[in-house]
Amino acid sequence: MNQNASSVVVESLVKRFGDFTAVDHVSFETRRGEIFGFLGPNGAGKSTTIRMLCGLLQPTSGRAQVAGFDVARQPDAVRQRIGYMSQKFSLYNDLRVGENLRFFAGLYNVDSEVLSERIHWALEMAGLAGREAALTGTLASGWKQRLALGCAVLHRPPILFLDEPTSGVDPISRRQFWDLIHRMAAEGVTVFVTTHYMDEAEYCNRLALIHRGQLVALGTPTELKQRQMKGELLLVEAEPLARAIEVLSSAPGVLDAAVFGNALHLVVPQAAPAIPALRRYLEERGLRVARLEAIEPTLEDVFVSLTSGRAEPGPEGN
Amino acid sequence: MLARLHQMLIKEFLQVFRDKRSRFLLIVPPIVQMLIFGYAATFEIRHVPIAVLDLDHSQESRELVARFTASRTFEVRARLEHHRQIAELIDRGEVILTVQLHPGFAQRLRKGQTAPVQVILDGTNSNTALIALGYVNRIADRFARDYQRDRLRRTAPLTVAQTPTVELERRPWFNPDLRSRWFFIPGIIGSLTLVMVVNLTAFSIVRERELGTLEQIMVTPIRRSEFILGKTLPYFLIGLADAALIALVGTLWFQVPFRGELWVLFLGTVLFLLSMLGVGLFISTISATQQQAMVTAFFFLMPAITISGFGSPISSMPEALQYISYADPLRYFLVVLRGVYLKGVGLEVLWAQMAMMAVIGVTLLTISVLRFHKSLD
After folding, report:
1. From the CA of B323, how many Å to the nearest CA of chain A?
2. Interchain CB distance below 8 Å, B15 and A89
3. Which residues of B touch A76 (CB under 8 A)?
4. Separation in Å, CA of B129 to nearest CA in chain A
5. Cβ B218–A107 below 8 Å, yes or no?
6. Where does CATH 3.40.1710.10 sit in chain B?
7. In A, which residues are within 8 Å of B377 by CB distance?
8. A88 interaction partners in chain B (CB closer than 8 Å)
9. 3-state secondary structure B303-367
10. A84 with B216: Cβ contact below 8 A
């Protein structure tokens, strides 16, 4: 498998629906065997991008190559080389587990010599061994989702597209699902995954942050957390919270303030001198400060920091 | 190519025959509908409830009333005393017709004058009223003729044989007893097949679109032609089986004669199904949800049956509708069905109908296939 066969190359990709620009000049490249995350809120353009890469939507402009083929001009060549799991569960509920697997294996022309081995593998992977005869509609969501993954990779595609694969799945199943993704990536499969769960984004090798159709940052989770922050991060717990955010938003040296649960995250140029200064600033204004300390930024902080000042997200586009 | 089509067919048949309910729906409703329509759809009238108001109380008036009583067409429900009773009976729908004989009926007859008989009838159902009126006419005519003949026989026996009459010799071809059931049953075979196949085809693709499974199929390397064939071939075969089932009920249960050749009917059915698959497929390309598909199918089905010549003849429709009916495949299929069943004619007569169905079928299928894209745009 060469580099080209398992890569996704996107150049200035645009998709417009009427006046609405769902994907706005997005460019990136993936590497073989990496888990490439597409992170952003609902309506940011994640599903639209993934659908263009699978040949389900025609790009308005720009270029995308998947497995070395142009998605707009050679969609069938692309389709034979990718696996796709859509947001919505989309196997046949009224077919048995084994019937779904054989159906999709047939559509992908899986060789009859390896067919039973591949189906066996998919059943094992999904934890459904011995349950081939179960009606798919009767399975719990975690099993359904792993069965859908199984159906999507029966033909051993070098590239796998997963659109919000874990939405509506319980935490344990989510964990198991990510273990499967990591195993496939270790075998050299390039995994392109969209999510709006920040914790899941940490499992990705590289992340593209997308906001209102635009790619706002790209890098490993660690890189993003270190480089993309405009300063250092402080955590503040103060009473009353509403007044605290009001006061801190206009405090000297505060670049950004956002609510995280019952605390505030502040971005300041340098943490060490800001801590005593801000404590004084708050107390002078009659606020009780319970905690004020420097913390490591999470991806959510990075995301908030990168998108603050930009307009609110557009309408739901997923 | 064949391997993927094969998979599509397996999947489609598994889905259709998996649960008891859909198996039941493919077999039982067509038969039940055939039986209901077969009995209910008729132009013939029997046991029409009537009332008689005889104000003459003469031998002649009683004899005329007796002819109504003896008729199988009419059932005398009430003998009235006063004409004021008429309105109420007709209003309440208890009778649809009243025959009123005025005082002096017999006297006028005896004098050789015209004796009026008043018929008041409920015109709500114009068709029934018209046919009933025809029967009343016939009874009155027969009565008058017999009366006249009796009178002549008594007064001038020698002239009876010289009275000129015109006698209609009825020789209805193909349906000697003019049973309207023979006319309707072939039409019902066509209409039921139409409804079944259009609905099944239209829903099968739209359902996948609505459930999201269509999206999953579209990212596989399946070709457009494989998908469409996989989606239509099962319903073509099911439609053929259902048509055969309904036709068997018509032939065996209702005893409609089958005078033509089976292969001609088979060819006609195949061509008709082709155009129906085209319609179903077309509906599925313009509908995003099953509800839209249902409304669109209904919008097509009702007029398609009405202007096909199923009930009323196309020649009595306004000219514009007659032109529209040329695009209605059922119009041609009905000619084929009635031609094969009742007239026993073959391709030498029905080739034009066959050709029209083929043209409509191929056109619709081509348009639908071109409209169907493997994308969500």
Report:
1. 40
2. no
3. 221, 223
4. 53
5. no
6. 48-162
7. 57-58
8. 212, 215
9. HHHHCCCCCCCHHHCCHHHHHHHCCCHHHHHHHHHHHHHHHCCCHHHHHHHHHHHHHHHHHHHHH
10. yes
Residue of chain A whose Cα is closest to the Cα of B377: A57
CA distance A210 to chain B (A): 22
**Beta carbons of B221 and A55 less than 8 Å apart:** no
Q: Do A106 and B6 touch (CB under 8 A)?
A: yes
DSSP code string of A50-117: HHHHTTSS--SEEEEEETTEETTT-HHHHHHTEEEE-SS--S-TTSBHHHHHHHHHHHTT--HHHHHH
DSSP A158: S
**Interface predicted TM-score (ipTM) of this complex, two decimals:** 0.82
Question: Which of A88, A104, A106 has the CB atom closest to B3's CB atom?
Answer: A106
- Distance from A81 to chain B by nearest Cα, in Å? 9
Cβ contacts of B222 on chain A, cutoff 8 Å: 107
What residue ranges in chain A does DSSP mark as E strands? 8-17, 20-29, 35-39, 61-66, 69-70, 82-85, 159-163, 190-195, 206-211, 214-219, 232-239, 256-260, 263-268, 288-295
* pLDDT by residue, tens only, chain B of 377 residues: 688 999 999 999 999 888 788 889 888 999 999 999 888 877 778 889 999 999 999 999 999 999 999 988 899 999 999 888 899 999 998 999 999 999 999 999 888 888 899 999 999 988 888 889 999 999 999 999 888 888 888 887 777 667 777 878 888 888 887 788 888 889 999 999 999 999 999 998 999 999 889 999 999 999 888 999 999 999 999 999 999 999 999 999 988 889 999 999 999 999 999 999 999 999 998 998 999 999 999 999 999 999 998 888 899 899 999 999 999 999 999 999 999 999 989 899 999 999 999 999 999 999 988 888 777 77
Distance of residue B224 Cα from the nearest chain A Cα, in angstroms: 11
Q: Domain B48-162 is classified in which CATH homologous superfamily?
A: abc type-2 transporter like domain (3.40.1710.10)
User: What are chain A's domains?
Assistant: 4-225 (3.40.50.300), 230-296 (3.30.70.100)
The phi-psi region of residue A255 (left if phi > 0; otherwise alpha if psi is between -120 and 50; otherwise beta) is alpha
User: Rounded CA gap, A83 and A25, in Å?
Assistant: 25
> Given B4, B375, B377, which is nearest A107 (Cβ)?
B4
Query: In this structure, are residues B83 and B53 in contact, taking their beta carbons and an 8 Å threshold?
Result: yes
Are residues B221 and A102, on separate chains, in Cβ contact within 8 Å?
no
A36: how many CB neighbours lie within 10 A of its CB? 23
